[in-house]
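Q: Structure for this?
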Amino acid sequence: MSARAPIGQRLKEFEEREIERILGACTRCGKCYEVCPMAQYSKAPASDSKAVVGGVHAVLRGAAGTPEALGWIGVCTRSGVCVPACPENVDPKMMMRLARMTALGGRGLPAQLPVKEDPDYFDRVRAFARLQLSDDELKDWT
Amino acid sequence: MSEHITFWYGCNVLRHGDIIHACLDILRALGYEPEPVGGVDYCCGTVKDANQTAAGGMATRTVGKLNARAAPVVVWCPSCHSHMHDFMARTNDRHFDMTYVVELLHAKRERLGPLLVRELPMRVFVHQHIGFNDLVPVNRMVPELLRLIPGVEVVEADYVAPGYMCASFAAIPRALEDINNNTARSARAAGADAVVTVFHQCYRELVGLDAAGAIPVYNYIHLIARAMGLAYEDEYKAWKRAGEGAAALIGAERIAKVGIQFYERAILPELKKRPKLQKSDPGS
């Protein structure tokens, strides 16, 4: 009898490998922050782009992020402008996504950003399905 | 003989049954036999950033269910598509080919064009985002699809919103306000009669501009469907325009299916929500 991998294990292992790769490749040049169209909406805009990326690295390592780093992580909406701007092909969009997961406590570390999950999210999806689909469609399509 | 495909529509597009039904008719007209799947049981897990155990479990479950269908997958939702690309397919054994719906329609445009027989005389502004376009060049492809419709003129977009779709701005209200205002202002400045969205997540937000009387808003599928003579009613827009009065349009029987308390707590506030438009905006 083969043992099944714990739920989400492959995803978590992938994320750990990606974090290791990103931390090894990123030189903290700050280009990703400089080109980001969302930085202006941060609750703690940064003047030092290199330092704010260093704060993101801290979050990825599981340490406390600076207010500037957490502010930037909190407004990342995956524009992706950072990807071609990165001279090291780090994929800063992936860096920020992993930082967001980490800062929200999603990787098992203490949360550093407030988690605002909508408790009605999935029930709302189900409700709209009941409003928009026939009974047969509900049965066969969802 | 038509080709079987799985049409993976996602979760939140279930607000727009007309979009799902129209997509199925369009795909059939292009020679496919689409089998639609979506909703919570097919969620990609991208909404679970705060719980990677749950996200991983949902991804594995959904990849397994799509594998079991043994057919190519055509994806509607940009969040599902990018999550599959970035995480799901890299952490699960995916056994199906996958195409984003805009890519497929664009690839089949020589066959789609002759089906667009009804003239729609209108100048449209295509609401674009910076993101996702690196994965699928929707900002080029959707205007090219719309130009196949007789009478449709696509005006040049001088505003491209940050992010990859509007719904992810719900937690950043100042940015969402900017998107609403910049979209309405740019569309009018370009002489457009209407705003057209690529994604349902943008349509859900920007249809508030329509409900507020600022400018008519459509999804690109609405226009393709109308040009093909498909007569699906955009109920979500009607509900949104009605706001408090949406219950009368939905009807007691359907509201009973979701429960009046849930409707009033979790659905009605969304239907009543309107964008904050700047006072200088002529449509405000």
